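User: Structure please.
Assistant: Input sequence and predicted structure:
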Amino acid sequence: MSRHLPSRHPLSRRRPSRAAIIRQLDDQVVKRGMRLLLRLGVAPNAFALVETTGRRTGLARQTPVGNGLIDDTFWLIAARGEAAHYVRNLRDTPGVRVKIGRTWSRGIAEVLPDDNPDQRLAQILANFGWLRRLDAKALESSIRLLGTTPVVVRITLGGAS
């Protein structure tokens, strides 16, 4: 007669991958802190807040990103690519808001899968200072560590909101 031991879920014994730990640290610490600074309007100009509409809930979702404003277009590189929730949200509802400093602007977002993220990042960095370049290095490291394929998003801005 065999004794039955309490069953455990097979995933509970697995150790989280390095990518999972990095994603959780990024989401729970870095993005949460930056989101607060951006909401208060006290974050450095190297960063911005993109507000999408949740594809399931319809609620506003705010994501901190690197500032990619060039003229009337806001460019961003989504490190997690098509898997990023905000990319999936803006594909569903392309109307977004972008907050730079203390100013919100409305825009229409478009994912550009054929655009080269490295070239686009170089174009963005040509317009910004050392802090934005430091953020770009963190973005590149994140992409390498997570093993993701980044995607370029273009937001055509249409005025203050």
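The chain has four helices and seven strands.
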